[in-house]
Amino acid sequence: MTGGFTGKFLRIDLTSGKITTENTNMKWARDYIGGQGLATRYYVDEADPKIDPYSPDNPMIMAPGPLTGTNAPTAARYMIVTKSPLTGTITRSNSGGYFGAKLKHTGFDMIIFTGKSPKPVYLFVDDGKVEIRDASDLWGKDVFETTDLLNERIGGNISVACIGPAGENLVKIASVVNEKHRAAGRNGVGAVMASKNLKAVVVTKGKMPTIAEPEKYRVVLPKMLKKIKENPVTSQGLTQFGTEVLTNIINRSGIYSEKNATVSGDDPIADEVSGETLAETYLLRNQPCFACPIGCGRVTTLNGRESEGPEYESTWSLGPNTGVHDLYTIISANDNADRLGYDTISAGQTMSCAMELYENGKIPDKDVGPTKPKFGNTSAVLEMSETLAYRRGFGNILAEGSKRLAEKYGSPESSMSVKGQELAAYDPRGVWGMALEYATSNIGGSHMRAYTISNEILGVEPVSEPTKFEGKAALVKYVQDFTEVMDCSGLCQFPSFALNLDDYLDLINAVTGFDYTKDEIMKAAERVWNMERLFNLKAGIKPEEDRLPERYIKNGIPKGPNKGKTVPLDALLKDYYHERGWDERGYPKEETLKNLDLGFYKL
Amino acid sequence: MTGGFTGKFLRIDLTSGKITTENTNMKWARDYIGGQGLATRYYVDEADPKIDPYSPDNPMIMAPGPLTGTNAPTAARYMIVTKSPLTGTITRSNSGGYFGAKLKHTGFDMIIFTGKSPKPVYLFVDDGKVEIRDASDLWGKDVFETTDLLNERIGGNISVACIGPAGENLVKIASVVNEKHRAAGRNGVGAVMASKNLKAVVVTKGKMPTIAEPEKYRVVLPKMLKKIKENPVTSQGLTQFGTEVLTNIINRSGIYSEKNATVSGDDPIADEVSGETLAETYLLRNQPCFACPIGCGRVTTLNGRESEGPEYESTWSLGPNTGVHDLYTIISANDNADRLGYDTISAGQTMSCAMELYENGKIPDKDVGPTKPKFGNTSAVLEMSETLAYRRGFGNILAEGSKRLAEKYGSPESSMSVKGQELAAYDPRGVWGMALEYATSNIGGSHMRAYTISNEILGVEPVSEPTKFEGKAALVKYVQDFTEVMDCSGLCQFPSFALNLDDYLDLINAVTGFDYTKDEIMKAAERVWNMERLFNLKAGIKPEEDRLPERYIKNGIPKGPNKGKTVPLDALLKDYYHERGWDERGYPKEETLKNLDLGFYKL
């Protein structure tokens, strides 16, 4: 028997209000692992790659993984698969918390939204009952208000994923936020949801998924938990200090940049915003996601009430990256991102881009208003953290993301983005796996399709010297595919500090009964990766966009342990394309596609 | 005939929900000028001076003046008369905007609220129709939300005066805010309103008041308007730069203090927060009150939306007084004060008191949380501007005002208050009229019962050297009584830069038909002043509380044109008591009371 799937999914046509239940294609499920992979298979089957992301015909799929909602460690994730208005790529944006597990418990393997509702609505799914409900009076409300109102009206143990004003205003970095502080943050998926007049999805009580091989599961599960509890990162570092534990580690590694990557290599006051400092100041307690033994989530105090976060990437992006080392400002801006519904990494990077442009005289005073976007100006960060969500004044330009901002002011090189999406908190000049990951991620600049920091900085096997060329491309390919396995499964990536591919495989096989070999599951992962690549190529995104901001290629890191280093991107890419079985220009070879059973989808 | 009054007022018993219309005692109206004076007469008639301000038996009176709602220049003011939870004195807290005029247009000379509603309610008054309506779902909402919701529900041309979370939480410096940004700010009247479960008062369409002598009025009115248009303060300074025009003037006069009056006399960067700087940065446009030809109100931009203010006193109190010279922070904190409903002067002074105490090691770290209240910390100002309204954490201590804060931490001398109310933006060591006004105001530390700055700094007749002893007490008595005339009338004090007592008298006589002589009206004003004094004495507030914070008496101003100066308070008070016809201890003499026809109310 099969577990982890019910074999049914929901299709919601928002234009007509029609709700249908369809049978899940279980061959696709196995071939694409489920979750994000399965959703991607359905997505490419239904969407023209050239489609306008805001077209009613652009499907938006919410998909938990086969393991999501089980009690496997960290089985909390769900994905949104659609086409991104920020990058024009296919996207998959990922969130934890409780929404994904409850979505899974509804008994549907995923929800495919198509069309556009004539008025604002929310979807309500309660143990088999599915309703499209009026949300006219919720439109305009922020994430906190929307979540509170739906909880108040519906009551019980519900979970709300919704958009805020940023989504409604089609801000290109808008997020979909669940439980107020967990976000499918990247790639502007909140704006796609808004374009469908879909304000929220509410899920409530339901059933735990079936486990295909319960006896195997009962052996595998405690083994995984033991490994997680014995690993210092997953049992201590992340638990005690959250993702913010990285601040001092990354800074000491010489890849912590400041001020839109104009300063890098050694931030003498990074500790002012570190997880250790947070733990001594604003931290109230941990907030674990569903089924998580790690509990990296932070509940912090803000103006005497509770907020959550900030995560490491958010802290860096809204903080030192904008020249700000004030935790209050960072927590406030991070809270605004959750409340108004947008991505913290892209927001901070867009602010820092604006600051560089302004300080270089590229942005005239009349465009920015009274609070000048200068590095280190906490007031500017707070102001921009509001205006961008509402597209007010200069916020209307920030709402487009850093790439369009930098192009508008004639300095495209000032946007720290790849394919239009802003990069995360690692200077790639000192960590070449991340350089390659940034350049080749199918959703534009992302650190989460292959978190090679684990292997290059944090000592996770296979270990790789951060700036050693040999084997780097192979590492990145391997980690990308392994990550695809993790992401499709519905587990978080954090257990991978303690668990290896075999462990994930054992869990997936026990739950699904798919009985994958290691080669089979990695091939499935590779299949998803290549399918995304093909979609992007069909969408018109050429391999020439596998680039990095030029300062990472031309200018050496100014100080610290990696002083002088740059990214040898062309050589890395050549090697990577080869590892991927792509031609020298970056197009998948016919034999590669055939080998992956993707012949049907070739260019 | 009589004008400016209808001869009817409303009595609202919130306990029973009973609404009655009573006839106005017109003898009292003339004897106490109307408005605040008349309300005070009714108040002392009904309230035991020893009453708990939060007792249902403590009446709260909303009173426009006889001129309010006419088209006389600045005829926009209304007063709240009750007993203050901050000072324990009788109080009158004053606001402009449109609410006062619309309240007058309802046809009621005032509204006396007594009792306590069993649930949250608001009062709705629409051209003769009076209803007590449920406000359960408005309780907990902030001022902006409450105002928006009532406007949305009721529609039309209404005006809302309401309390915010600060009032609901019985914050001792809570205000009653009308039109979102105009506040009866001082003395905690918002907490008294909250103690009655009265969330808001809504007034709507109605009639202009009757003018007793329209022919005289038609002569007097254009004369007043001409004077206002010809005076540089009322036609240019206040119009162009708002009350914030004072920043540079007061700073140049050597009476602008910083950091809880630990620094004073010359702020080299005061211009960073001046009206001139505001006009070049955050100012969008003017916002005049009803019937106002001056238009000192500022509409400013905050996070891309509109806010109002900040006024001069607010800017100083939340800004340089806390060591902050950042307009964004000041505008944000000022906006929080309007949104959450509390007084800006007392709030900033309470924050600065906390900063002094914290920097001196009087407040332990555990009491204040992660954002440390240090001078110049913009984050601390922003945080405290939220927490105090909700009584969260350290905000629960701030909510009590600076006097109780300083006493709690064993440094009563660190509270810049008189009788428990925080002082305004003038260092009294360099302006002795203000010293005496602060010390003797019947509502505790106030600059608005006698704005002698006009005479001592701004050249308004009668001019008085700021630190010349001779004639100072007489000046303060005169200005206090003249101010009483202005305040009772319902006009703003700002025309007095251009108009003198004769002008106000002509307007009042034309509107009311009371045919006052100058002596008669000044005697009426003095009657109100002495009645308040008697109430306070009966309430247990001894003349010994006519004091100033000791640093103003013991420590000379450290720098600037007034370097070394202190306040000779005892001598000033002796002279003042004599001018008032009070004995040397500060008690009104029997003959004085008899002369004022106050024999009935003696101690």
Q: Could you name the key traits of this structure?
A:
homodimer, 603 residues, alpha+beta, 6-stranded mixed β-sheet
Shape of chain A: globular
Task: Identify the quaternary structure here.
Answer: homodimer
**What does the main sheet of chain A amount to?**
6 strands, mixed
Number of helices of chain A: 25
Strand order of the largest sheet of chain A: 2-1-6-3-4-5
C-alpha termini separation of chain A = 36 Å
| Most extensive interface between two protein chains, with residue counts | A-B, 25 and 25 residues
Uncertain regions spanning at least 5 consecutive residues of chain A: none
State the helical fraction of chain A.
Answer: 25-40%
Beta strand % of chain A:
5-15%
Number of strands of chain A: 19
Written account of the structure:
- Two copies of one chain form a homodimer.
- In chain A, the strands form five sheets. Chain A has a six-stranded mixed beta sheet, sandwiched between helices.
- Chain A contains 25 helices and 19 strands.
- The model of chain A has no long low-confidence stretch (mean pLDDT 97).
- Chain A is α+β, with helices and mostly antiparallel strands and 603 residues long.
